[in-house]
Write a structure and sequence with these properties.
By secondary structure, the chain is α+β, with helices and mostly antiparallel strands. It is about 25% helix and about 25% strand. The strands form 6 sheets. The protein has a 4-stranded mixed sheet. Strand 12 and strand 13 form a beta hairpin. Helix 2 runs antiparallel to helix 3. The longest helix is centred in the first third of the chain and has 17 residues. The termini are far apart.
Length: about 375
């Protein structure tokens, strides 16, 4: 695994990137390489997994601290492992353990109980939904991967018929105390036990399925109820579907990022829906009954006589439902008047006759414009 890329390089961010910058980079890359948007693209699938792996570490303060100090070996127990397997610090060790190993002896710093239950970390995934699904709500089956308790050894890491044993070096504490003689006297420090790597237990015969880790990477699915009115970049939390906890600790959560695909006709602005409606020159001049698309289906609307380009009319309560509340936004329709092309000689003659018969009262805006032009520049 020596060829694993640097996580900051994978995310395209500097090492001093803020939490918001890390999250923003993840959302962009997750959307770019998501399997739903790249069906059958193995390269995109591999990059999507790589991005998720990088974000899982860099979004977790403890894992990020270990990674910044020790690289992949600090967060991946199998990276660079020898015959014994595991990272030099153990899979279950957190940054507090490392800190105490260096500074815990001064003033008797806090010692972690390696056998105490600890909650698993949260994981994230993205689900793509249509504009209509976002507006009306839906149920989606979401696929994701998490670290689950190994069903072969029930999380102990030991092969069937065997059990982990209390570490003979640290006697189950996960740490050893070292007395060092200095010019200022004897200084007592604590560090991670080299024998059990901070776990407090040793496994003589590792489980073949999980390699002694006690957890395995598993592909899972869960049905998620997406509420009506949701928008892109919203996050839904699915409790208990993250990574398995340590020492029978609870599972973390699954955070589901929502990505709403754009609509070919509608545009969302807040909870209002906007669209354009093309009509003919004749419909605008004489008025007409027109069909307008909405999220609820087609409706009939009366265009009044003399409708102008870019006029806007409102369809009340035809927009997006208010998320978590009552009511919904409105729909705004902008008029686009199509100028006819490819006219026949007869059609051109009819239009000339009409134009010759028209007066200033037919074109109020043009009359006002030329009056202002004359006052400003005189006769031209």
């Amino acid at each position: 695994m020596a060829d694993k890329r640097d996580y900051y390089e994978v995310m395209g961010i500097p090492k001093n990137a803020s939490d918001d910058e890390i999250k923003k980079a993840f959302r962009k890359l997750a959307k770019q390489y998501h399997p739903d948007l790249n069906p059958g693209n193995k390269e995109a699938e591999a990059k999507f997994k790589e991005v998720n792996e990088a974000y899982e570490v860099l979004s977790d303060k403890d894992k990020k601290a270990r990674y910044d100090q020790f690289g992949h070996a600090g967060v991946d127990p199998s990276y660079g492992a020898g015959a014994a397997g595991g990272s030099p610090f153990g899979q279950d060790m957190d940054f507090g353990d490392i800190f105490n190993s260096f500074f815990g002896g001064f003033g008797g710093g806090r010692r972690n109980n390696p056998n105490a239950p600890r909650r698993g970390s949260d994981i994230e995934t993205t689900v793509n939904i249509s504009f209509e699904e976002a507006a009306k709500g839906c149920k989606k089956t979401v696929s994701y991967r998490n670290e689950s308790v190994c069903d072969e050894c029930n999380g102990s890491g030991a092969a069937k018929g065997t059990n982990p044993k209390v570490c003979p070096t640290c006697h189950g504490t996960g740490q050893v105390t070292i007395n060092q003689r200095t010019p200022f006297g004897v200084v007592q420090t604590s560090r991670v036990c080299d024998t059990c790597r901070g776990k407090g237990k040793t496994v003589e015969t590792p489980c073949k399925k999980c390699g002694g880790a006690g957890r395995v990477r598993t592909k899972r699915t869960v049905d998620v109820d997406i509420p009506a009115g949701i928008s892109s970049d919203r996050i839904l939390n699915v409790s208990g579907h993250g990574n398995a906890g340590i020492n029978n600790g609870p599972y973390g959560d699954l955070r589901v990022y929502i990505n709403v695909r754009p609509h070919p006709i509608f545009e969302r602005r807040g909870d209002d829906v906007w669209c354009e409606l093309p009509i003919t020159f004749t419909q605008a001049a004489l008025g007409a009954e027109v069909t307008v698309p909405t999220l609820d289906g087609k409706v009939t609307y009366h265009i009044h006589e003399g409708t102008q380009p870019n006029d806007i009319f409102k369809l009340k309560a035809k927009g997006i439902p208010h998320l978590g509340g009552k009511g919904r936004g409105d729909q705004y329709v902008k008029i686009v008047i199509e100028v006819p092309k490819n006219l026949t000689a007869k059609q051109k003659e009819l239009l000339k006759d009409f134009d010759n018969s028209a007066s200033d009262k037919n074109y109020q805006k043009s009359k006002g414009f030329f009056d202002k032009l004359k006052k400003t520049f005189g006769d031209i």
